[in-house]
Amino acid sequence: MPDFHAPFPLERNPHLQEASKIMWEWIDLRGLAATPRARARMLNTGADLSGAYVWPRAGLDMLSLGLKWLALTFRIDDQLDEDDPDEQPGSRARCIEELCGILHDVPAPQSPVADALHELWKETRTGRPASWQRVFVSDFEAFLRSYALEAELKAVGRIPELPEYLGWRMYSVGMPWLWDLDELRLPLHLPDSVRNCQTMSTLRQAGSLHIALVNDVFSVERESITGYPYNAVSLTMQAQGCSLQEAVDQVAGRVTEHAQVVSRILEHLPTELRRRQLPPDVRTAALDHCENIALNLRGQLVWHASVRRYAITDITDITGQWAGNYPDDLLRQAG
Predict the structure, then answer these.
(1) How confident is the model at residue 334 (pLDDT cuts 50, 70, 90)?
(2) Which residues are CB-contacts of 148 (< 8 A; sequence separation ≥ 6)?
(3) Nearest alpha carbon to residue 19 among 53, 54, 68
(4) Which member of 25, 99, 153, 162 has the lowest number of beta carbons within 10 Å of its beta carbon?
(5) Residues 12, 57: contact at Cβ < 8 Å?
(6) 72: nearest Cα among 125, 119, 104
(7) Residue 151 · residue 191 · CB < 8 Å
(8) Residue 218 has what pLDDT?
(9) Are 128 and 134 in contact (CB under 8 A)?
(10) Are 175 and 211 in contact (CB under 8 A)?
(11) Among 1, 2, 3, 8, which residue's Cα sits nearest to residue 261?
(12) If you average pLDDT over residues 138-144, what whole number do you get?
């Protein structure tokens, strides 16, 4: 495992224990981990610990809301990436479009995931500006649709080159919509002119890819076993014919480059915000939000090294039969 470059402070939310209790009560209420195997997978994932590093400065209410979103999306990720070995693109696409439709008030077939998403989005959007809702929905849909895209590519046997892969990986890692949620803890919502400016876009892209590539290194062994091919380490090995360690080292080099981009932007951002002649409260909120993104790079690195989500013991048992961790209650509804 390389020494990943993440030269930022480490902060963890002090409300973790109480918010974790709220998250697990919600998981049980929504039936998202209704079997011992599913519950073990959720425990090994540590969605609550991840959220404590995603939103280290959030209050209890905001952190609890964020942990629900993380638990739900880890559930979706596991079922689509690991528990769906056939990956039929038609069934996958219908499933994804039904989930996206929920964000636009389109009724979907009942399932624990669909019902939880409907309830959670209703809770989240209440009282939020339409401009923020549009941004969140766009980023969350990009996250969801990455699963359909990967199924389509796998169905035709096409392995993308690394630049193409990174184009959707920055969304499939999930960080953009997680950072959209971070705005909910700020005293004001960022204006579109700030949120969408080139500097902010570059910062968010570099931060997303930093975390995505770290994730690819930590998950490459497990994903190789489950037959999931879309990983920067695997793609580098295939493209260059190099060893696993050589590919890992190359990916770690890209991680360093993205961390350096984030550092440079943070250094020059106060000057740029003043040049834009933004009100002081907007500048303060924007800087706080960008600092939170940088904290994520260090925090998510610690989370990856702390949890058993990427261990392989649950998929290499003596029977050799991989039955999945979650009940088939998502794709079945879309079939």
Answers:
(1) very low
(2) 89, 92, 93, 96, 97
(3) 68
(4) 25
(5) no
(6) 119
(7) no
(8) 97
(9) no
(10) yes
(11) 8
(12) 97
Name the CA radius of gyration of the chain, rounded: 19
pLDDT score of 86: 58
- Sorting pLDDT into bands at 50, 70 and 90, what band is 335? very low
Q: What is the dihedral of CA 58, 73, 299, 188, to 10 degrees?
A: -30
The 10s digit of each residue's pLDDT in 304-319 is 999 999 998 877 664 5
Residue 326 has pLDDT above 80, yes or no: no
For the chain, the structural domain boundaries read: 16-334
CATH number belonging to domain 16-334: 1.10.600.10
Look-up: residue for tokens 């696409």?
93
Q: Please list, in sequence order, all residues whose beta carbon lies within 8 angstroms of the beta carbon of residue 266, skipping any fewer than 6 positions away.
A: 203, 290, 291, 294
Looking at per-residue pLDDT, the higher value among 330 and 136 belongs to 136
Phi/psi for 323 (5° steps) reads -105, 0
Whole-number mean pLDDT of the chain? 91
The sign one gets for the Cα dihedral 303, 251, 263, 187 is negative
Burial grade of 47 (CB within 10 A; 0-12, 13-18, 19 or more): buried
Token pair of 282, please?
């907007």
How many other C-beta atoms lie within 10 A of the C-beta of residue 15? 20
Whole-angstrom Cα distance, residue 289 to residue 189?
10
Token reading at 170: 């920055």
pLDDT in tens, 220-271: 999 888 888 899 999 999 999 999 999 999 999 999 999 999 999 999 999 9
pLDDT at 87 over 80: no
> d(Cα 157, Cα 286) in Å, to the nearest integer?
43
Two tokens, residue 80: 């689509």
CA 230 – CA 159 distance, rounded (Å): 8
Alpha helices in 173-319 (DSSP H): 175-182, 192-195, 198-226, 232-240, 244-275, 280-306
d(C-alpha 230, C-alpha 165), whole Å: 8
Distance of alpha carbon 219 from the chain centroid: 14
